[in-house]
Write a structure and sequence with these properties.
The complex is a heterodimer of chains A (230) and B (128).
Chain A (H helix, E strand, L loop, with lengths): L25 H30 L24 H25 L3 H31 L22 H34 L1 H5 L3 H26 L1
Chain B lengths: L7 H4 L5 H31 L10 H25 L7 H36 L3
Helix pairs in contact in B: 2-3
Chain lengths: 230, 128
């Protein structure tokens, strides 16, 4: 981890161009490039949200008055479920970083254990997201029907249509990232269990999918603030 | 794909059991920090939410500002510690962060300026 930034790279390990840019491996650098482009997409979403809600400020709904439901209870708990989802995602990010750390010690058991917990955390988050969507779509009366009192891309019982559109696009796009992250983590978990990385001599693949998983968490931190809190 | 089997870069990343303990401790400290910030955010959202304060007043403006600061702190810890960007070469860190920040800050500035203008036109025309 800390070592690679200072290490002098051996001639035999250089890339095809005779250099090793930034002393990182090819795969890791490409993951960073991908994450930058993905961050620009999310940045586009969130700045577009800022643009619309700023000039629609008078009619924009108050989030606490929409997201106050909590599963298995009828209590009025504004934002608490979203906060719990945020917490779950942060914890799954922590288990991921522990898996990476175990990989650096070539501790196969540790990698498998922490990666498995990461997958579990991601799955819980996805389930919560599905529940959140159901509750949002059902609208204030809490019933899914075909009439106009359900939220969709074409109707929004809470206020401006754009509010529902941004909700579906931002959380949907993020949820898609979580879904693919869970699938990728699962694949790496299975390979780790089979001993692929042990044989290869390093667990860098865990680090690379870890970057993606942390990014998903990072985006949610911003979505939580700019969609729900503000 | 075949470059993935070159192990030398990644072998540099290996560390001992001793270092592992230190790194795990750091991870737990950061975890606690992220959880506390999230809890504070939610608490502030409930106590001084948009529904409780005048959305035009300075109180809500400062709460909003505090939310943004706390979010940036959380993001910084995630990127620098969890994503290990703080341990990479400085040049890689700059290549990733600086262009992104310049672009997003510019975009945000231009969109908010335009949004304010649209709002003022709507007010002028009596549409709001």
């Amino acid at each position: 981890m800390a070592g690679e930034a200072t290490q002098v790279i051996d001639k035999a390990e250089l890339w095809g161009g005779g250099r090793s840019p930034f002393s990182v491996s090819y795969g890791k650098m490409m993951m960073w490039f991908f994450l930058i482009s993905d961050a620009l997409t999310f940045g586009g979403f969130l700045t577009a949200l800022a643009f619309q809600r700023h000039h629609l400020a008078d009619e924009w709904p108050i989030t606490e008055e929409i997201f106050f439901h909590f599963p298995f209870t009828h209590a009025h708990l504004p934002l608490l479920y979203v906060a719990l989802m945020t917490f779950i995602l942060i914890i799954s990010s922590v288990t991921m970083v522990l898996a990476v750390e175990a990989g650096h010690r070539m501790d196969k058991k540790g990698v498998v254990k922490w990666l498995a917990w990461t997958v579990v955390g991601g799955a819980i988050f996805l389930g919560s997201q599905a529940w959140e969507w159901y509750t949002f779509i059902a609208g204030p009366d809490g019933l899914i029907s075909t009439s106009a009192d359900n939220a969709s891309l074409a109707s929004n019982p809470y206020g401006p249509q754009l509010y529902a559109d941004f909700f579906f696009f931002i959380t949907g796009f993020h949820g898609t990232h979580v879904l693919s992250g869970v699938v990728i983590n699962l694949i790496v978990l299975i390979r780790a269990m089979q001993g692929w990385y042990e044989e290869r001599g390093h667990y860098e693949m865990v680090e690379k999918v870890g970057l993606y998983w942390h990014f998903v968490d990072l985006v949610w931190v911003f979505v939580f603030t700019f969609f729900y809190l503000i | 794909m075949e470059r993935d089997d070159i192990i030398e870069y990644s072998l540099h990343a290996h560390h001992s059991e001793e270092d592992g303990k230190k790194i795990r401790k750091k991870i737990f400290v950061v975890t606690a920090l992220l959880s506390i910030i999230t809890a504070v955010e939610v608490g502030m959202g409930i106590i001084w939410g948009k529904s409780a304060l005048d959305p035009e007043g300075w109180q809500w403006a400062s709460i909003k500002f505090a939310f943004i600061i706390m979010t940036l702190i959380k993001a910084g810890y995630i990127v620098m510690v969890f994503m290990h960007l703080g341990d990479e070469r400085k040049s890689l860190r700059n290549v990733i962060l600086i262009p992104y920040f310049i672009f997003i800050v510019y975009l945000l500035f231009i969109l908010l300026a335009e949004s304010t203008f649209i709002h003022s036109v709507k007010e002028l025309m009596g549409w709001v």
